[in-house]
Prior knowledge:
single chain; eight-stranded mixed beta sheet; 20 strands; about 15% helix
Amino acid sequence: MPRLAIVGLLALQSALAQHPTFYKDVLPVLQQHCQACHRPGEPGPMPLLDYAGTKPYAQAISQAVGSRIMPPWFADPAIGHFANDRSLSPSDIQTIVDWAKAGAPAGDPKDAPKPVKWVEGWTIGKPELIFEVPTAFNVPASGVIPYQYVIVPTHFTKDTWIHLAEVRAGDRAHTHHIVVSLRDPGSTWLAGEPVGVPFTLKPHEGMSGAPGEFLAGYGPGAMPEMLAPGQAKLVKAGSDLVFQLHYTTNGQEGCDRSRVGFILSHEAPRQRVVMLAAANIRFMIPPGDPDYEVNARITLHSESSLISLLPHMHLRGKSFEFRAVFPDGHTETLLRVPHYTYSWQLSYYLAKPLRLPPGTTIECTAHFDNSADNPMNPDPSKAVRFGAQSWDEMMIGYFEVATDLKNGLRELLLPGQGNPAAHTM
């Protein structure tokens, strides 16, 4: 072979060797940031577990990560630090972009990391207990479906601590979200309603009796909560689970039987985890308003530690911010989502829990775009108020705290009811 050809071949081999390869460089990024959703049975449209399944989408993946559309993550990077930060580093983005530009080379399979051992159908691992809605709900092809509720008894004979919980929709194509709440024994909430079959709320029924604590949920882009060791949620003996199911139609009929799986806490937990919310249900967004502001606040009266934040709005949601106002008067911004999207209902888990002394107030500020410039807006000519359906609006700042085992909603929210000195973080 002529010397010039040899030199050219060696130069080509050297250039190729410098390009990222799938097994050595790309697969570790996919495992850490993408495979939780992009695997069989999960919401990602294609599995990204191996080279054969990933290569055909190399250009699309490069474009999605280069524009930061994927992975979905909307927190302002200048505010706070979050344990579940899905965003890719600039170096990870460049690796994928360079790999796609080079023709998506496979590389040496020996360079591949060990495969992640996913449990089929569950993200939390194999549940110890599974509660499924007993009666299927048939989803029509068209029309508006009121929220459906199903009461499912636990038959727990003793107080039970749940360490991990995951909700799975039986019919993802028609299920927008699911909320599983607790109904304590003796509660008047939904009294008289049937057990085990779907029903809709009667007028003002949702205001009769206090709804129980939030246990687990499912929504677009949401991942199951992974509580820290020693943390758990309490399900009292004799409690019922209440499924709230929001179905949407898409031109085809469907059938759903959703379920929730539990992994129990087999040792006495150190902290009880409780979901709270700063919400505003009394607002009216004027027609065409591009930047309407709504505020909400809630004060905690027992010692706790903040562990997660979940902003919730609908199609006109534009931005959302959480702040903590401490008893000494100083304010700390906790989370800022400058570009909210209803398509992804994400929770943000603090990298380090934040102590909230008794008397701390959680404030939320949301902005809504009810103008024609909002491509998600169903009708910019209408005034919009709080409501359940997607074309209505909501302004809810959900957040979870870890607190003393004796503290529930009452102790946290009512003055003088809790354990102000208890602090275990």
